[in-house]
Amino acid sequence: xxxxxxxYSQTRVIxxxxxxxxxxxxxxxxxxRCHYRFTTxxxxxxxxxxVIKKDGSTESFDRTKILRGLVRACEKxxxxxxxxxxxVEKIEWEIEQKRPRVVTSxxxxxxxxxxxxxxxxxxxxxxASVYKNFTSIEDFVTMLQELENKTMEEENHKNSLEGETSGxxxxxxxxxx
Length: 177
Known about the structure:
Layout: E1 11-19, E2 24-31, E3 37-43, E4 50-52, E5 58-60, H1 63-73, H2 81-96, E6 102-104, H3 105-116, H4 121-131, H5 137-165
Parallel strand pairs: 4-6
Antiparallel strand pairs: 1-2, 2-3, 4-5
Helix pairs in contact: 1-2, 1-4, 2-3, 3-4, 4-5
């Protein structure tokens, strides 16, 4: 690794540690000539993800666009930025698992809605109104009914799982399964 100060090509690694949940390695290095210390990062190079937009054009995947949309939808809802960043990480991970690495903007929007439905119903409706291009009150009413039905189904499913465990040493099934 070349020293950024004197451009000497001999350095030594002082310290290494994993960062970014094991997806990269942070290394502290020292130049053997001038003793300048600097940090380098080693990351896995992924094949870029291509997004096919509604109009058929393509662009590279940009996680900041998802985060911006989430932040906007969650304004004044009390949802923390850390929560939104975890959602973006989960969505990005789900997309990275696809082969070939091509995804439609609709698939991304659906993933965002799926995650938002568990975080904030208000944010879910806000995001859906832009993503699905609502044009009337009826669009909002329809989406609210769908969200209410989904919430009721999930609650019924949760209650049925809890009922199944009532005779088994009162152990609850973890909610995250």
